[in-house]
Automatic annotation (TrEMBL), chains A, B:
<dbReference type="GO" id="GO:0000976">
    <property type="term" value="F:transcription cis-regulatory region binding"/>
</dbReference>
<dbReference type="InterPro" id="IPR010982">
    <property type="entry name" value="Lambda_DNA-bd_dom_sf"/>
</dbReference>
<feature type="domain" description="HTH lacI-type">
    <location>
        <begin position="2"/>
        <end position="56"/>
    </location>
</feature>
<dbReference type="InterPro" id="IPR000843">
    <property type="entry name" value="HTH_LacI"/>
</dbReference>
<protein>
    <submittedName>
        <fullName>LacI family transcriptional regulator</fullName>
    </submittedName>
</protein>
<dbReference type="InterPro" id="IPR001761">
    <property type="entry name" value="Peripla_BP/Lac1_sug-bd_dom"/>
</dbReference>
<dbReference type="InterPro" id="IPR028082">
    <property type="entry name" value="Peripla_BP_I"/>
</dbReference>
<dbReference type="GO" id="GO:0003700">
    <property type="term" value="F:DNA-binding transcription factor activity"/>
</dbReference>
<dbReference type="Pfam" id="PF00532">
    <property type="entry name" value="Peripla_BP_1"/>
</dbReference>
<dbReference type="Pfam" id="PF00356">
    <property type="entry name" value="LacI"/>
</dbReference>
<keyword id="KW-0804">Transcription</keyword>
<keyword id="KW-0805">Transcription regulation</keyword>
<keyword id="KW-0238">DNA-binding</keyword>
Amino acid sequence: MVSIKDVARDAGVSPQTVSNCINNPDIVKPATRELVAASIKRLKYTPNASARRLRMQRSNTIAIGIAPTSRSQVYDRLLHALVTEADARNIRVTLYKTDSHQDEIRQFAALSAQGDVDAFILTDTAHGDPRINWLNEHRQTFVLFGRPWGLDDMYDPSVPWVDVDGRHGIADMAQYLILHGRKHIGFIGWPGLSGTGNDRRMGWQDVMLGARMATEDELDTLSDTAEDEIFSAQIACTRLLERRPDIDAIICVSDTIATGARLALAAGSGDDGIAVSGFDDTATAESMGLNSIAQPLTESARELMRIIQERLDAGPDLQNGVDDCHVLLPPKIIIR
Amino acid sequence: MVSIKDVARDAGVSPQTVSNCINNPDIVKPATRELVAASIKRLKYTPNASARRLRMQRSNTIAIGIAPTSRSQVYDRLLHALVTEADARNIRVTLYKTDSHQDEIRQFAALSAQGDVDAFILTDTAHGDPRINWLNEHRQTFVLFGRPWGLDDMYDPSVPWVDVDGRHGIADMAQYLILHGRKHIGFIGWPGLSGTGNDRRMGWQDVMLGARMATEDELDTLSDTAEDEIFSAQIACTRLLERRPDIDAIICVSDTIATGARLALAAGSGDDGIAVSGFDDTATAESMGLNSIAQPLTESARELMRIIQERLDAGPDLQNGVDDCHVLLPPKIIIR
């Protein structure tokens, strides 16, 4: 690698003069500048990126957290799309390890104090997320992949996000099933208060009530919940079918739960004819022939990068004035 | 963020003096140094990472390529393990986009010319890989996840690698199946000359010949090949069964091919009792109840980081003298 010292030696000037030619050309005599420029060209000198970044006060790097083990194929796929979109904008993607929100905040502090990162992308967002407060208090640029899920902060300009409209996707699936003759459509969701989970359940509920396929009271008997793993889903599916043996389709909140449901049905009466659908269109859904819902990850990555770039260009004082920073993208139903 | 100028103002000295106190303390008077040190402490000034790196000539960053779409759950899982291992050593992981070997070499050139990256991790290695030559010619530190697969370069100290012993894993699986009463064990591999694919096939061949379960001539009728996708694997499995209806187990080179084989069998005689095994222990293998072979990715990540660190510590002139830079790790068979 050619260094600033090599250029200085070649041009017969001091390294400080070369540095001035690059960073403060005004204070260097024109003749000296030309001499140094010729040496830079001859030696093919590339100013060190760390040096250049120091001048620009921009690292051209964004950071995204990654858990110690792969929890979701969707986040892994988003990473691929994100690197492609970032590369097109000459932006680097750096990863940091995250075990918990507190751990992640420690990483924000380190990465931002060192000026290594221009912006953060947050995933796995929840209501009252402490990461959002920290980033806003420390005037860091960020965008969520997922919604903040609070009544008060959903359209707050200081909390930009890109998300996929799960409610819309599940409603599309329910409508498709009804159009194809299914009448008693069950739902298996996640337990507890998950913003994403509740939103997806609403999609099923909207269509079931709207198409008069169920009354308000019936919704409870037609639905059940399971942790996001196969065994828990098998139990939930068996329980649901015992309660409602008339069920002819089951919409699940995830492909993992759909897999468990499919396995429970296969272990039961064999060819049951019950349509099972999941969410995320994973390799498993494809292998098992499950219907699913595909998230538009390339488009999501593009919108995340667009929002980051617009906010960085506006600067810390004006970034909350940037429009169009809450983007809900429609997913696509996949029928097998 | 506190800057060097803030410290200078606070200490009543020039920014250059503050810089000298940090980078060339010898040339500053002790009294001035103490004054500046007190200001640094009072203002909680952290030297900018770009500035610090410039001095250290180390970016504390490693880079790994990532394809535009997720091709393998194994690489995605490795990424998680790698970030965890790197974090423990205070090393950053940055991603770059790669479409082809040539594209990747362009990325090497950019990342190394800018001094942004200390070392590279290469995946998807093949015999005569042009990336390896480029990195060695340009004296860059790197390590392969996968072997170079050349007779001449397998134990070349200038081509360090970490890999998982697929031959060993497949042989373990074949032995397990024979111990559990299987006699006619087929194999579905990849077509063409894949180092990894041939190595895995050798594991099956070793055991079949060693246990006298097949003659050399029989190996061809007991094996077939398929592209790494479900449909191609279904066809190969059907063809294999037509040729050898006595087959009672099929070992596949990947989980994707095992999935295709399982689907072909299910579409045939129903409960066939044929044991199907894959490779990589993906979520799909778990969902479909397939036997598989798990790669030790945490251990792989640890070895990759160890080799990089040892080579960086040795420096460019001595790094090829570092021992223990060819590591073959045993995988684990998973029986379901």
